[in-house]
Amino acid sequence: MIAKIKSAGLKLYGESIEHLPVPLAVQVLTKRMPRRFVIEPTNLCNHRCPLCPQPMQQREFGRMDAERFRGLADEIAPFARTICFTLLGEGLLHREMFGLVGHAESLGIPCSLTTNGQLLEDQIDQVLDSNLTALKVTIDGIDKETHERYRVGSDFDKVKRGIEKLMAERRRRGLTRPNVNMLSLVFKFNEGQQDAIREWGYSIGVDKVGFKPVWIGGARYMNADKAKFAEEYLPEDSKVHHDSWLKENLCSDFRVCPTFHEATILWNGDLVPCGRCAFDGRDAIGNVFTDGGFRAVWDSDKHRRKLATIIRKETDLCVGCDTPNGGKWLEGENLEPRRAPWPR
Question: What radius of gyration do the chain's Cα atoms show?
């Protein structure tokens, strides 16, 4: 009952901001520290997926400095409810990935990590020793040919072994962490394999198997022909198409995006309005490592000006985005771990 009341209160809070004058909405948004953090450990990747703009991103490549991250985690620990390590890179390419995780978890901040699984087999001990709360592994087929058709550079057998060994070792140690979610995108060429993927995943003990429609919106970043991508990748069944294939601006009815309530930080420390800035680092509000820390950047005039610009739709940043609609899950929507059920 209490949880329902709190949930209703948060919903009312979000809806009320929608109707506030822009200056007041901005003040409310920046007054409250974010609870969810999306942090990019690295923008390097060992795959070259055809629909991903990662190889063409227009910013410097690198890895987040571990010591600087520890300072950031110490600062946000009083109010952070979760850290999601993801964005435009493969987290396991960070040499100290599980040192970052371990430090945040030791502060009581639940962490989730998304990986393509290529390096998982070699880091099972680190995964389990870090006390990581949740791990999401992507696999897009039940066989080598299907999976590797999209995951260019992947080794299906190695990814499969990695997941199986992780679940076996977690079971052997009697652990329940991390919660392991297996995510599979639905394409034209793997349509019909979902039952087999689901059966295999649950047979080896993963906690959840989820499916999402492929998103081809990345074509705009690559100056590619979206219609050509659609022909090659979209499933025959239109019911499993991503909404953004049909609409260019799914956010037209939203003034205040849910991402305004969270913090997105690139590997170099740049705080950006949302993950859509990851391609080119555009619209950086400030740097949490060099501009006085997270609180100083979040509470800056530049942040307030940037939010006002986005709310007034004076930027093309939101074109084609579907974040306010929550994306589209076909099955097994991931529920990220959160420390506190109510903002403090």
Answer: 20
Q: Which residues of 8-33 are buried (b: 16+ CB within 10 A; e: fewer)?
A: eeeeeeeeebeebeeeebbeebbeeb
296 three-state secondary structure = helix
Angle subtended by helix axes 22-31 and 2-18, to nearest 10: 140
Which residue in the block uniquely carries the two structure tokens 């170099």?
A: 268
Classify residue 341 by its DSSP letter: S
Indicate whether 7 pLDDT > 60.
no
Instruction: Select the more confidently predicted residue: 165 or 49.
Output: 165
- Class of residue 226 by CB neighbours under 10 A (exposed 0-12, middle 13-18, buried 19+): middle
Average confidence (pLDDT) over 84-112: 95
Give per-residue pLDDT as tens, 242-294: 554 444 444 555 567 777 788 999 999 999 988 877 778 888 999 999 999 99
pTM of the predicted model as reported, rounded to 2 decimal places: 0.86
d(CA 161, CA 163): 6
**Cα separation of 165 and 159, whole Å?**
10
Predicted confidence at residue 285, as pLDDT, reads: 92
Question: How confident is the model at residue 242, as a pLDDT?
Answer: 56
The region, left, alpha or beta by phi > 0 then psi within -120 to 50, assigned to residue 108 is left
The reported pLDDT for the residue numbered 65 is: 97
**Which position has the token pair 């939101």?**
318
SS3 labels along 81-129: CEEEECCCCCHHHCCCHHHHHHHHHHCCCCEEEEECCCCHHHCHHHHHH
Q: How far is residue 218's CA from residue 280's CA, in Å, rounded to a whole number?
A: 13
Contacts of 20 (CB under 8 A, 6+ apart): 28
> Which structure tokens are listed for 303?
């942040």
Q: How far is CA 162 from CA 105, 110, 153, 168, 185, in A?
A: 23, 23, 16, 10, 19
Which three-class secondary structure string do you get for 140-207? Answer: CCCCHHHHHHHCCCCCHHHHHHHHHHHHHHHHHHCCCCCEEEEEEEECCCCCCCHHHHHHHHHHCCCC
Query: Could you tell me if 242 and 328 are in contact, meaning their C-beta atoms sit under 8 angstroms apart?
Result: yes
Q: What percent of the chain has pLDDT over 70?
A: 79
* Residue 156 contacts residue 143 (beta carbons within 8 Å): yes
